[in-house]
Amino acid sequence: MKDSTKSVKEDIDEFTGAITTPIYQTVAYAFPQGEKFRYTRELNPTVLELGNKIAELEEAEVGMAFSSGMGAITTTLLSILKPKDSIIMPMDTFGRSLRFASDFLRNWGVNVTISKPGNDNFIENLKSKRFSVIFIENITNPILRVMDVEEIGKIAKENNSIFIVDSTFATPINQKPLKLGANIVIHSASKFIAGHNDVIAGLAAGNDSLLKNVDLMRRTLGTSLEPFTAYLTIRGLKTLKIRMDTINRNAEQIAEFLQDHPKVKKVYYPGLKSHPDYNIARRLLNGFGGVVSFEVRGGKDEAIKVMENVKTIIPAQSLGGVNSLISHPATMSHRTLTKEEREAVGVTDSLLRLSVGIEDVEDLIEDLDQALQSIK
Asked: What is the set of domains in the chain, with CATH numbers?
């Protein structure tokens, strides 16, 4: 089946004939019938179905759901790493992921290597020594570098490293990292997967042998997803393919518009020929994604002014929903990084991150234009 069919298809409930997954809003399950599920923190039928859905879309052996994207990341890393192990990740990774590695994991005794942005620096580091875990975002947040998952996957296999890819920005529609050599793929399902800015959830999919331990850690840490949120995520997942088709198309047109705008200094979008990873993006992505980052002419005040003057687009920190959102990473998503760290990854005071939704692209372009005209 194609992705759009996989996203929509649900198993019919044998007892009732229900055509959608029921919400099993219960804490426990009566024995002997309930022996499989026992307690909802450990296993719940609605949550289990969501895990099965992401496994099918990612063509993985198994999938599971978590209380958030960061819950998926921290639980996965804690189940795999132990003191004296090593992990490498690029510096231009989501701020909270970076903080977890550089602060918590390092203090816990894990050898943490933070690589400079870009494929060349990262691959050079990989070839210099073996790492227990390789962790990347296939499209980085918010500078949108496109990592060469295929090449990194080959090195990971040669070195017997566990290769984890955060594919939140790409989604299974634009890339399937497991087919390119990754062992585990992670999503903040709060973003494009659920797609309506109304849930907090995380997902992981990959090899059964690895995820067995991840599941045990999830049960212990309590980073489990609750059933109603799982239901909403399954419902959102049904329109993932058609949403991403529209979002990919809208974002590409907006990036081209911004590239020629006199009030814009620089545009970051993998679908533009000016992007440093354009050739990698063309080779490894089915679509260039729904996030466009750009620097306005001026500084922090000018960037904030643009964000304050949009009318259709919503100024907010999240991304990946049907509504277009704009944010200022330096004071929002990446505020936990020091000024030096932000500068090193390209998060300048003039940078804005636009999450493109499914609105009419002409309305979005008109809104951006009038907001940009508000700065001198």
From this structure: 3-237 (3.40.640.10), 241-372 (3.90.1150.10)
